[in-house]
Fold these 2 entries.
Entry 1:
Amino acid sequence: MRAVRIAQPGPVDTLDLTLQDVPEPQPGPGQIRLRIRACAVCHTDLHLAEGELANAHYPITPGHQVVGTVEALGEGVPGWSPGERAGVAWMHSVCGECSACRRGESNLCVRARFTGLHVDGGFAERILCEASFAYRLPPHLPDLQAAPLLCAGIIGLRSLRKADLAPGERLGLIGFGASAHLALQVARAWGCEVHVFTRSADHRRHALELGAAWAGGIERPQGGALDRAVLFAPAGDLVPQALRLLRPGGTLAINAIHMSAIPAFPYEILYGERTLRSVANATYQDGVDLLELASTLGLQVTATGYPLSEAGRALSDVKHSRLDGAAVLIP
Ligand SMILES: [Zn+2]
Ligand SMILES: [Zn+2]
């Protein structure tokens, strides 16, 4: 089969991401093999390709938002049959025994293994996954629209939860890509007023089309303090600016696996019982919840398809924010 292999990380605009022939993987006990139909591109894939993730090892096939058809089953796999559609997300497996797993925070498992980081991911024609971590997808959603739900959607929902967002509150979204465009719709369904901060004129237009109350630059916020905010851009410079948007008691959640250094800031912008926290990974249940919301709320997924052979162009477009919503590779 063919797959994108990153042997040596580097800037995606110059990295060689031509497809390579690799052996077809064989499912072990408890695993299933999918024939991949679509795999969305995440900022994490970009950080992996550019060598910004400390625990990455190479060569590796990136990609952790995979829609495929069950093709082969390992021993002891109940509940799945060949021909069914399934989804694979970032979480490949957890230990189930560590203190994080025992207290229900399996996203923080010390022995967690992640798709497209520790095991080969979905920038390929086939993938193996643990059957117990595979998802059933809303039947009405085409592959192109279902794939971005599997990280952008899931982590967007977890970010809203970690931002303590309550119905009817005023929410700020800083950066507006694949994850934010889905989080916006969930927040709107909860009756929240959403303010979007982005430099891109195209992204401002997209946000307003999806129901944002306001879209503009972070240097000129409009109308009063926000209750909650989520920072999607991996730019530490924005953290103090985002904190300044919050009311006392407000929360800023950072949705980024990697971020440039956060500059020193005066204590007064955190004082007033404001909360600053990061968001790391997501539990399997977060994914179940998001996929159910996608059905009940009728989330609109904006996605652009690219042939798998053009993974480099897709990563470059994500890096430079040259598209609305999500980039999705189609083998
Ligand atoms: Zn991701
Ligand atoms: Zn664990």
Entry 2:
Amino acid sequence: MLELRPTCENCNTPLPPGSLEARICTYECTFCATCVEDVLENVCPNCGGGFVPRPIRPSRNWKGDNFLGNDPGSTTVRHRPVDRAAHARFAATIRTLPPHER
Ligand SMILES: [Zn+2]
Ligand SMILES: [Zn+2]
């Protein structure tokens, strides 16, 4: 199950479970859409993979207790700002390959 981390790892902006701005990699490294586009160039600084929009967990109990009331988002903040110069070099290397070959 996704942790639904509470903030952007780079800029620490709040990303509550209902946020449409949250982006995640396959390891659930979590950033805001602005940082993914403007800082990260869609390359995760932790694993080198890409990002997708984080799905919204239902806030209502539509079915089988599978909802935020039963499975709330994480409250553990992971704020690890990216070194922009180092990341630019990292991303430039990775982006020479098409996504399916990275
Ligand atoms: Zn951010
Ligand atoms: Zn990652």
